[in-house]
Amino acid sequence: MSVERHTAETPAGERELPLVLLLRPLFPRFHVALTHKFRFLKPWESQLPPDEFLAAHAGAVRALLCSGPTPVDAELLASLPRLELVVASSAGVNHIDVAACRRRGIAITNAGNAFTDDVADFAVALLIDVLRKISASDRAINALPDICNSYGVGHVANLDKLGGKRVGIIGLGSIGSAVARRLGAFGCTILYHSKRKKPSVSYKFFSNVTDLAAESDVLITTCALTDETHHIIDKEVMLALGKDGIIINVGRGALVDEKELVRCLMEGEIGGAGLDVFKNEPVVPQELFHMDNVVLTHHQAVFTPESFDGLLEVVMGNLEAFFSNKPLLTPISE
Amino acid sequence: MESLGVLLTYPMDSYLEEELGKRCELFRLWENPPEKRGEFLRANAASIRAVVGNTAVGADAETIDALPALEIVASFSVGLDKVDLAKCRERGIRVTNTPDVLTDDVADLAIGLAIATMRLIRAADRYVRSGAWKAKGDYKLSSKFSGKAVGIIGLGRIGLAIAKRAEAFGCPISYFSRSEKPQTSYRYYSSVVDLAANCHVLIVACALTEETHHIVDREVIDALGPNGVLVNIGRGPHVDEPELVSALLEGRLGGAGLDVFELEPHVPEQLFGLENVVLVPHVGSSTWETCKAMADLVLGNLEAHVTNKPLLTPVL
Fold first, then answer.
1. Which tens digit of pLDDT belongs to each residue from B263-285?
2. B256 beta partners
3. Which of A148, B31, B164, B166 would bridge with B281, disulfide CB 3.0–4.6 Å?
4. Which of B200, B235, B238, B305 is catalytic?
5. What is the C-alpha separation between A208 and A221, in angstroms, rounded?
């Protein structure tokens, strides 16, 4: 019987629990639920620098719980010779070197459908807010309390109707489909771009994003961030979308050429934007702060108790399945 | 209709005003200070055969009494709480409104307000614009909208349009109405308090009448509770506003998304800056397309009246 030294507390009963490497602390509600079932290796609690710690203690680690967007790069993977599973706590896995994992036969799981409803709700709400200037109107009332029902529509200018808008969804996965279902009920026409056409949907498919933009009034990005989708909304797409067009980004900041987006908004080349994500969070281009045709939120589309509970269930389920040699719940597709 | 004298009560829409100015003999009520309005009406009473009013200034008993030649009130609104219908009925004055063309926009705003309130979007936007977002990973949980029980007061055109949208979010729908609507499968409650006790989001979408004044009172607000959200896209007087304000300040109500207020243009300043409250200035139907459609309906009704054709959207 070997006795392994860990910096985590290991009362006798816990030595039977499977070992999982963390890179940063868990959300408290996650920690409470998961420490009953797993033993955590916590490099940040050690005096040793991370690479030395891993060299000393992580040789036996088969599972890594990547809580938050901490990068899982090739270097880290190389220091974990027995790693077989990376459990991500997000839908997106752009912070993980997927190719390196694939080469090593390391499985990756993500949040599955835990976030679908909340992200879809958020995308719809951002769109209505931009078109109907909800946040901007609230700001206007705060500044000029008697503005309510004051003369003319122009007191909060250019309110735009949602019904009848052509909405181009970039990425028709579970989140994109959920957005489509919701906006259909508002009388929007749904168009989409995806890696491959989906024969089971009746929405019009575009293999080219610029063509999609040319026929859309709104673009919503709900796709994964990969090398192929980096800046999938670029200058060409924005100009094709046009000066009344609205961009809603609930995916990842880098899906949109942010510098170009700011320029287009400043010059009136597109009509507005609702953004939950940015290229270099928490940095948000200050030029956007005085615009009334823009809504800015701080990467919070998934921050509801239900999404967190759903995520916890998926994370726990994947770890349990792995350690009992059962099929993983939410492995990412190839 | 050049000979039609039209009293426009309020500068509600520039396209409407322009068209009325071109096509009719237009009298602009608001250009006269309040104390001179009676005089203005008397001076032009012989010419004024039509009144075009809105949610701010309609055609009340005093106005109607001052206009013996009045034949038609064409309201730039679907709600008729600012038109003295009894008086119009008594005098045989025709009344038209603007139904249907604004249904979608008002329903869209109701859902937009609900989600903006529950997901703290306005508060987040304020936070980001203040430059306060310094550390990634700041998080605060907000309330999920999808799947939450939605209760609708008034299942007319707008109420039904709200229900249809909320259903796409998986929200179970229940309602209060003067009478049950057997043609829908939504759950009916014969009391607003029961409706409020059994839903998470309560949306006011009924007409304002004497019966529905303060239909959302303290009892209803308490039943909706500290996790409940009120959305009002109806009329300010539907809600007991001082009760609403104290409930929000004391945390007895979870949140509110409001497009209308009891004493417009006054908006209770104690609500400013509350993260769970979203306030918009009576913009339910204020999109360019819908305002034009409403204006065209008003013009079309007046045109039909002067040419003795059936009115497009008569109420009386």
1. 988 899 999 989 999 999 999 99
2. B230, B277
3. A148
4. B235
5. 14
Is some CB atom of chain A closer than 8 A to the CB atom of B150? no
Residue A6 domain-assigned (yes or no): no
Query: What is the rounded distance in angstroms from the CA atom of residue B269 to the CA atom of residue A157?
Result: 23
**Closest-approach residue (CA) in chain B for A161:** B287
A254–chain B nearest CA distance, Å: 16
Same domain, residue pair A80 and A136: no
User: What CATH number did the domain enclosing A89 receive?
Assistant: 3.40.50.720
**In whole angstroms, what is the distance from residue B214 CA to residue B70 CA?**
32
Q: Which residues of B touch A303 (CB under 8 A)?
A: 139-142
Q: Give mean pLDDT, residues A129-144.
A: 92
Give the position of tokens 């977002």: B133
- Considering the domain architecture, whether residues A45 and A176 belong to the same structural domain is answered as no
The band of A67, judged by pLDDT with boundaries at 50, 70 and 90, is: confident
Residue A287 contacts B, CB cutoff 8 Å: no
Provide the pLDDT for residue A155.
Answer: 53
Q: How far is CA A233 from CA A172, A262, A278, B106, in A?
A: 16, 13, 13, 31
Cβ of residue B263 closer than 8 Å to a chain A Cβ: no
| Cβ–Cβ under 8 Å, residues B161 and B175 | no
pLDDT tens, A149-185? 555 433 555 689 999 999 999 999 999 999 999 999 9
**Is B184 strand, coil or helix?**
coil
Question: Is residue A292 located within the same domain as residue A316?
Answer: no
Task: Verify that A83 and A174 share a domain, yes or no.
Answer: no
B28, amino acid identity = R
